[in-house]
Amino acid sequence: MDDFIQHKYGIIKLIYNRFRNAAVQEVAEEFFLPILQAQESEDKFESHMEFIYEPSDTEILDEIVPYTLRIQLFRALLESNASEHGARMTAMHKATDNATELIRELELNYNKARQAAITSEILEIVGGAEALKE
Fold first, then answer.
1. In terms of pTM, does the model score above 0.70?
2. Angle CA 93–99–105, to nearest 5
């Protein structure tokens, strides 16, 4: 914020991963500074009342604006952190599913090979018994 005030930067944008859910994270880009005003609607109720602020309105803004910007930056950091954890969780879930499927396939292949070996031994024994009979 100080560098923006000293005109070292003209525009500051936040680019972070916005968390949607554990499987979906989106890259978000938001203006950080300067603060852009929302467009006002034309049918907005206009009041001609004057308010007295204590402390003054500039003192209030001088306190609230930096606080709000810090909160906005902290929120972006939290969303990026949550997005990272969500992506890791999704990756680990997929890795676990793939490993489970691989183990199932290996067990099936092992059982088929073992059954083939047993069948082969039985055939050899029966063949040897038949040869002894003759």
1. no
2. 140
In which residue are the tokens 């005109």 written?
7
Nearest to 32 by CA among 74, 62, 95: 74
SS3 33: strand
Cis peptide before 34 (omega within 30 of 0): yes
N residues, the chain: 134
Task: Tell me if 18 sits within 8 A of 25, measured CB to CB.
Answer: yes
Query: What distance, in Å, lies between the first and last C-alpha atoms of the chain?
Result: 101
Q: Under a CB-based contact definition with an 8 Å cutoff, are residues 26 and 20 in contact? A: yes
Q: Is the pLDDT of residue 91 over 70?
A: yes
Instruction: Return all residues near 33 (Cβ < 8 A) that are at least 6 apart.
Output: 1, 4, 9, 11, 12, 69
